[in-house]
Description:
This protein has 682 residues and is an alpha/beta fold. It folds into four domains: 5-159 and 222-391, Alpha-Beta Barrel (TIM Barrel); 164-216, no CATH class; 400-611, Class I glutamine amidotransferase (GATase) domain (Rossmann fold), CATH 3.40.50; 623-681, Golgi alpha-mannosidase II (Immunoglobulin-like, Sandwich), CATH 2.60.40.1180.
Amino acid sequence: MSLLPSLAGSLAYGGDYNPEQWPESVWPEDARLMQTAGVNLVSVGIFAWSRIQKTPTSWDFTWLDRVFDLLHEHGVRVCLATATASPPPWMARLYPDSLPVTAEGVTLHLGARQQFSPCSPDYRRHAAALVRRLGRRYAKHPALAAWHVGNEHACHMNECHGPHSVVAFRAWLKSRYKTIDALNAAWGCAFWSQLYASWDEIHTPRRAPFISNPAQQLDFKRFTSDAFLDLYKMERDILREVSPGVPVTTNLMAFFKPLDYHAWAREMDFTAWDSYPDPALPDEGRHWAAVGHDLTRSLKPGLPFIQMEAATSAVNWRALNRPKPAGLMRLQSLQALARGADGVMFFQWRASLSGAEKYHSAMVSHIDPARCRIHAEVARVGAELKKLAPLAGSTVRARVAIVMDWHAWWALELEARPVKLDYMATLHAVHRAFYEQNLATDFVHPEADLSAYALVVAPVLYLLTEAGAKNLASFAARGGTLLATYATGIVDGQERVVPGGYPGLLRDTLGIWVEEWLPLGDRFANTLSFTGKKPSARRAASTDALACREWTESVHVEDAEVLATFTADLIAGRPALTRRTVGKKGKALYLATGLDAAGWTRLAALAAAEAGVAPVLAASAEVEVSLRESADGARHLFVLNHRHAPVSVSMDKLRGRDLLTDRPVARTLALPALGAAVIRLD
Ligand code: GAL
């Protein structure tokens, strides 16, 4: 299935195009250069609201009509933005209460972008009118390929405490709890004298003298994600009505804490994200992009996604903005495809001459494209994407899943924990351990269908609903291998401890219970030592001791084997890693500590061996291997050399033809520095 039917089976290639920032005389050159660079899709109008509607009553679409026609003549399709990401100055002048307010009560003013509250009725009314007009005007234009709602929702302004948000929060709570007593019970308001008598006593969690009610904070995060999503849905519904059949999406930001993208993805026709790995940290950047691609792909199982933005070279918003070395942008583009993208787009087409982003790289920079190495690479990638069209519609099929839940993230990182835990750091570390071994992973919601996986890893899944716990338990009962870690399943969906020994909700499945936590911080240390009784565990864990990080626990075993024990502290000799056999083939492993990178690598290998999962091709460090599979059985193997030196990769029994060179690939594959092959397997 093609993500964008109007691209007729090609991969998407292009970027944000902001013609409203340029004299019209520049546009023909843009269109001509796009054509020669192989561009077939551009995102137009993202920040064009004030150009379209300079005053509440004056509309001008004529310039946009000309842009559409020009692009169409040059074979470039349009992903048309709804332009609602940055309201015109008149919005703040006429409706000052449409501006967002922080937890400290500070109003965020005009002058940048995103200066609106998602709950402002005036903003919403004007946004709806704009979207309806845009939708009606361009629904039938042959250049229209997709709709791009807003832009990076909540990126800069990710919660609002203004008057409209307070009213909306109360309404959201009323529909969740129905009665004020139910809310008092759910929030545990008997604690610290917080029992509410009426809805209008309730506020968003503004800055308070001490730790705010955690359940209130958690609900506010849920509400905030829903409030932005509600705005997205308002725009999407208008587009579906006036422009039926045209796919609707928006650009996500992968692991973006304020928005629950599991809920968002359900409302999107396909997912897309903006990938900005830091060229100053090449090793981290390589994994940072991979993990973002994997999440974005996983959010819509079975479907490709689009990398909606990336930088061709440097960005402008870090403290230190290094350019990408020649060839890295190409390799990163291929990496996006390797991990399931059906399109590669950039911010932006032509570098601005003024404004806050003029030092951000682009597809056409401040110098003559004919003399610009970045533009030459842009054109090379455009030509290569044409050769890779057979990939369109295919996806990556992972056998390993990492459970990830925004609600667990929000709850875990509230205040007053045994030690400050960083959900993202742990998730990234776990993912990286599999990534470095070229074991494909998906990210899944705790209540998702797990039948496609052999191994499911649940790291620090602090908050777990009963349905989520049942889902994980039945995955193991059906023969899967489950690996849960410390700080998992501690509280229910309402942030209430499940009593009787942690992890309340998974105790029976894991066959253990935890009595106390021994967080390590920087001042305490421990190691985990394999007992050596289990040969498979020993093989995968080539050394007997792994360094513990962050957290340890005092574990009691009820119905499990002990694979490793702690060597020190108050828990010397007590279980650190356990395994329970569930039914005939299922396994439930529990790891009672955090690990360093080397430790996670061992644990990932051990868990993969327990589950019988192996990489499609074993390769040396920094050589990324990924497989895309289509419904018709075609299989494309990506081999990406992230090293700045040539490598030679042994192909084992795999054979095929490299689509980039159109040459057969035999026993070994030689790749130059930052080189890549995309092999259609025989
Ligand atoms: C993104 C944003 C773009 C542009 C870009 C610069 O976050 O969506 O509009 O600002 O960053 O890197």
